[in-house]
């Protein structure tokens, strides 16, 4: 069924695509994809939260925006992003915890808004496109009954790419993103790279994923995050990306 839907997007008059909100470099990375989708005749609508720092719904654009309100201010978001760069190693855990709480408030702005959800259902989108750096697109796609396509720029230490996308990343050869290492590592750097991967995985498991699993379970009953679900979603991206764009 999903494959048939995606083929239809290519050979018919274009599909109706809903795009999950994102920020920063992830948004910059996503925009060329959206421009290409428009070039191919698709109608593209981007969800944009009221506290977005980089997504400007008032700027001229070939795609449309669907704004929604969130209980987070732009000042809160600026504080979160500056923390990332100022003291990422010292305050990494608290930064992740703070970010996930803000992210869940963003998600509330979509799922707990009757007005927003009614609009999304009435517009009969064909699929949901997302950079999953902001969580909730998979849950939203499931509720709306839409195929989900991921276009991920990167995650810290390739956490999502390795655990969800099955990306081969042997620690002795592949430096973790944001570790400041290169592919030419001496023995001590390889040891640090191994510890870096392990540290980020532990932080994500006990802070990020734990909070997200709790939210999903409360929002839709038992909705566990598992490897099978992640691999299925990633498979759609790697298999159908060329057909979509």
TrEMBL record:
Annotated signal sequence is 1-24
- Known Pfam families for this protein? UDPGT
Q: Name one GO molecular function term.
A: glucuronosyltransferase activity
Query: InterPro entries recorded for this chain?
Result: UDP-glycosyltransferase (IPR050271), UDP_glucos_trans (IPR002213)
Source domain of life: Eukaryota
Which keywords belong to this entry?
A: Glycosyltransferase, Signal, Transferase
Q: Which family does it belong to?
A: Belongs to the UDP-glycosyltransferase family.
Listed name of the protein: UDP glucuronosyltransferase 5 family, polypeptide D1
């Amino acid at each position: 069924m999903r494959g048939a839907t995606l083929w239809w997007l290519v050979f018919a008059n274009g599909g109706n695509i809903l795009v999950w909100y994102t920020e920063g470099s992830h948004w910059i990375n996503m925009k060329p994809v959206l421009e290409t989708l428009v070039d191919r005749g698709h109608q593209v609508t981007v969800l944009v939260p009221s506290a977005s720092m980089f997504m400007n719904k008032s700027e001229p654009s070939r795609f449309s925006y669907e704004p929604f309100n969130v209980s987070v201010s732009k000042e809160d978001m600026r504080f979160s992003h500056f923390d990332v760069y100022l003291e990422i190693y010292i305050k990494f855990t608290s930064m992740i915890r703070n970010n996930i709480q803000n992210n869940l408030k963003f998600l509330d702005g979509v799922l707990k808004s009757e007005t927003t959800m009614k609009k999304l259902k009435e517009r009969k989108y064909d699929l949901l496109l997302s950079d999953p750096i902001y969580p909730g697109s998979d849950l939203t796609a499931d509720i709306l009954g839409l195929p989900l396509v991921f276009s991920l720029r990167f995650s810290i230490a390739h956490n999502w790419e390795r655990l969800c996308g099955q990306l081969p990343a042997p620690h002795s050869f592949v430096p973790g993103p944001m570790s400041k290492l290169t592919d030419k590592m001496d023995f001590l750097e390889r040891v640090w790279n191994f510890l870096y991967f392990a540290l980020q995985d532990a932080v994500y498991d006990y802070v990020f994923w734990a909070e997200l699993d709790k939210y999903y379970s409360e929002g839709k009953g038992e909705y566990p995050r598992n490897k099978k679900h992640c691999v299925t979603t990633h498979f759609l991206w790697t298999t159908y990306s060329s057909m979509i764009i």
